[in-house]
């Protein structure tokens, strides 16, 4: 039900892509069942972001490149808008022993407002590469003994703000202990406020 027009997308200040592969937006039933043409919603999302929208991608088995590379966001128009690039193959980092996020950004960043104490354990993430640009800021990483990969990254695309969280938003990579943590609701409130320019 994602809109097929810029007018439709303009009703939203922020759009979150979580565990949905690129083909889910590219291959509308009119295309793959009936051979009809439809607008490319990945290009629309990129252009909507450039015009001032707030685009977020959350990690998971069908985010970034995903399990067996099936999420297929690598080399798409949406990837152009993100502050990271996707790997061209399965990018899952399964960490069953868990890891604690390492906060690398300034403690007074708007995304950390109201979040206190130690962050809970996470169980996995997607591996990505942060873009080497002045607008890109890595605010949290995996620990060095787990590769030091980006976890929370912000950037800009034209007039829009973009953000990625490379772990999941719920189980299994983000366990119930994280969901129950008081900082969980605050983090996602902060994310939506930041990308929509309310903060």
Concise description?
The radius of gyration is 17 Å and the shape is globular. Helix content is 23%, strand content 25%.
Helices and strands, with pairings:
Elements lengths: L5 H4 L4 E5 L3 H5 L2 H4 L8 H10 L3 E5 L18 H5 L2 E3 L5 E8 L2 E2 L18 E5 L1 E3 L6 E5 L8 E8 L2 E6 L10 H4 L2 H14 L4
Parallel strand pairs: 1-2, 2-10
Antiparallel strand pairs: 3-7, 4-6, 5-8, 8-9, 9-10
Q: Over the alpha carbons, how many angstroms does the gyration radius reach?
A: 17 Å
Structural category is alpha+beta
Low-confidence stretches: none
Helix fraction? 10-25%
- Major sheet attributes: 6 strands, mixed
* Residue share in β-strands: 25-35%
CATH fourth-tier homologous superfamily = Class I glutamine amidotransferase (GATase) domain
The CATH class turns out to be Alpha Beta
Strand arrangement, major sheet? 1-2-10-9-8-5
Number of domains: 1
Describe this structure in words.
- The chain is α+β, with helices and mostly antiparallel strands and 199 residues long.
- It has one domain: Class I glutamine amidotransferase (GATase) domain (Rossmann fold), CATH 3.40.50.880.
- 23% of the residues lie in helices and 25% in strands.
- It has helices spanning 6-9, 22-26, 29-32, 41-50, 77-81, 176-179, 182-195; strands spanning 14-18, 54-58, 84-86, 92-99, 102-103, 122-126, 128-130, 137-141, 150-157, 160-165.
- The strands form three sheets. A six-stranded mixed β-sheet has the order 1-2-10-9-8-5, with helices on both faces. Strands 3-7 form a two-stranded antiparallel ribbon.
- Strand 9 (150-157) and strand 10 form a beta hairpin.
- The two termini are 28 Å apart.
- The model has no long low-confidence stretch (mean pLDDT 97).
């Amino acid at each position: 039900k994602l809109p097929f027009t810029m007018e439709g997308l303009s009703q939203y200040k922020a759009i979150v892509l979580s565990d949905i592969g690129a083909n889910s937006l590219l291959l509308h039933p009119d295309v793959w069942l009936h051979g009809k043409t439809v607008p490319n919603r990945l290009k629309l999302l990129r252009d909507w972001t450039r015009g001032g929208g707030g685009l977020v991608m959350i990690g998971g088995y069908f985010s970034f490149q995903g399990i067996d590379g099936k999420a297929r966001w690598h080399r798409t128009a949406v990837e152009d808008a993100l502050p990271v690039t996707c790997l061209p193959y399965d990018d899952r980092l399964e960490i069953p022993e868990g890891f604690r996020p390492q906060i690398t950004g300034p403690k007074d960043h708007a995304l950390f407002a109201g979040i206190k104490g130690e962050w809970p354990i996470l169980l996995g993430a997607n591996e990505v590469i942060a873009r080497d640009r002045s607008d890109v800021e890595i605010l949290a990483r995996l620990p060095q003994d787990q590769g030091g990969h980006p976890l929370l990254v912000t950037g800009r695309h034209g007039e829009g703000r973009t953000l990625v969280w490379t772990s999941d938003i719920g189980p299994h990579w983000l366990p119930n202990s994280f969901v129950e943590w008081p900082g969980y609701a605050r983090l996602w409130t902060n994310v939506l406020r930041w990308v929509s320019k309310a903060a």
